[in-house]
Amino acid sequence: MKLVIDLASQTMRLHDADGTVLRRYRVSTALNGPGECKDSGCTPRGRHRIRARIGGDLPIRSVFVGRRPTGEIWSDALSAAQPARDWILSRILWLSGLEPGCNRLGEVDSMQRYIYIHGTPDSEPMGEPRSHGCIRMRNRDVVELFELVDTSTEVDIR
Question: What residues make up the catalytic site (predicted)?
């Protein structure tokens, strides 16, 4: 399996070993555009691998802070009470860069930047850059994807 994230079209494709596209998803990447530097708020490019899968046993729309579930389930009321919160919901696929000097080690390390594929409130638009660097997905889509990939899945962000 391999994931390909296209920053220009704000899409993600899941390919099997033969290159056949199994799934297509709309995503939302960084508002600040592509970039690898720490604290840039950009989505890093290049080859990555899923380093960790978090939240597989939790209900859809579960809320995470620091990769840990808070016990909250996202709702419109919870969102209204905390309008500035950057919601990480449902599942987390934590990425690790594979290219030293590009997205691995030093000031460009995707894993140390906490770059994830994760769920976001369904009220957030897909298909347009809006994140703080991560790859946002619809909750139902990230739950589906979570079941199809593992920690050896390569992720190419271009």
Answer: 118 (proton donor/acceptor), 134 (nucleophile)
